[in-house]
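User:
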Amino acid sequence: MSEPRVGSEEDSSSCGGADVEKHLSCPSSGLVAARLTIVVGDTHFSEEKMLLVQSCDYFQALYRSGMKECQQDEIHLKYLHARGFLIALAVLRGEMPILDGDDIVEAIECAAFLQVIPLAKHLINLIDPDNCLLMYHTAATFGLMDLYHAAALFIRDMYGDLEAEVRKTLPSELTSYIESLTPSVFVAVGAHVTCGAAETVHAASRTVCYLDETANTWKVLTDLPLEASTSMAGVTVLDNKLYIIGGVHGLHKQVAGSFCYNPENNSWSRIASPAQLRYNLSLVGVDGCLYAIGGEYERTTMSSVEIYNVKTRGWTFAAHLPRPAAGAACTKTMGRIFVCLWRPMETTEIYEYVPGKDEWRPVTTMIRHQSYGHCMVGHRDNLYIMRNGPSDDFLRCLMDCYNLSSGQWSSLPGHFANSKGSLFTSVVRGNSVFTLNRSMTLEYIVDGKSWKPRRQLKGFPRSGSVWTFLLRLPETLMLK
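Assistant: Predicted structure:
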C-alpha cells in the first residue's frame, strides 16, 4: 500500500441549518413576536411567525416574495395532513417525538412540502430496521433527498437481512440505487505513541485496519501520519472521515497534533487542535461538528468542552461538564450526545448535551454495585452501559439499558465476556453490535433489549487500547 498523503483539510457539512436574512428579524418586518394562524384541512394552528420563517424554507420564501399572503394573519396550506404539521411544530419547539406508520408518511410529506430542515434531520435520526424501507420509499415519493439517501445507506448496511424484503416491496430503480452504494466496514486502530524520526513508516502499530468480513481477515487501510498519536487521543468518525484529536507522545505526555483521514482520496490532513491542550478526552461527531469533551492536561482533569465546526475549521468553547472527567464513556444516538460521569463508588450519572441551549442536561442516574460505566453504546432510543462484573471477576462485565422514551432502566441477563477489551469498544451497524479483542470479533444482534451472539470473526491482533468505528471505503481502496 502506498503511503497516505498529508495535505490541507477539506470542507464538510456545517453544524447549523439555514440562516434567516437579518431584515426578516428586524422590528420593521412585522415578524418579531407576531403570530400566524395556519389552517391545514379543518385544523387551525397558531404559531409565532419567526419560528416558522427561521425553520421552513417555504415560509422564508413567502415572506421574501412580497405576495399578499405576507400581510395576512391566516394562511391555508393545501395538500398537507394536520398530523404532519403538528409533528413539524413539535420538532421546531425542540421535542423529539418517536414516530411510526402513518405518522412517518405525513411527517415526510410535511418536511418535503414546507422544506422543514429540522424535521428532515429528526426523521434521519429515527431511521431503524423497522422503518427504513418505509422511510426510503416515502422520501423517494416526496423528493426528500437527504432522508432518501440516509435511508438507502442504512438499508445497504443491513442488506443481508433486508434483501428479500427489498426485492419484494421496492421498485427496481430504488433497489438499484441501494445496491450502487458502498456498505460500511468495521475499522480499528490501536493505541500508538510516536517514536520520532527513526520510526518506520509502515510499523504495524501505526496501521488503521478494516475487517474483510467475507475473507474473515484484517487488512491494512492506511498508516497514521508520523506526527500523529492515538495514545490517550480522541478518535471518532464524522461524515465518513476519521478524526484523531490530541493524543500524547513522550514520557512527559506532550500533546500531539490533530488529523483527519478521508477515505475517498486516501489522504490525511492536519487540522486545528483545541484551544485548550488536552488528552484522554472523549470525542464525538454530530451534525457537522466534533465535540471534545473533558480530558486532562498536566495532571489536571478538566470539565471544559470545545466544539469544532468542520465547515469553518474553528474551535469554540461550549458549556462545561457538570464536573471534571477524563476518558468518560460517551456516545451518540438519534442525533443526540450523551456522556457518563462516574461518582464513586456506585453511581453513574448520564447527561445529554443540548446544542440549542448550550447546556448539559441530567438524564438519569444508575446506582449499581461496581457501577462504573466503562463504555456506553446507543441503539435506537436505548443507551447500553457496560460495566465490570463482580469484583472477583473483572474479565466479565454486566450491561444495563436505559430507554430514553420511557425513562426506564433494565438489566440485560447474564454476564458478557470481556477478555482483553471486548465490549468496551462496541460499534453499532443497523441491528448489529460489533465488539472486539485480540482473540475474536463478535457480532451481536440486538433483539428487543437483549444481545444475542450472531457470529464470530477474527480478532484484532494488537495489544493495548483499541478504537473501533465504521467507514465506507471506495472499492478501489479495498482492492489494494
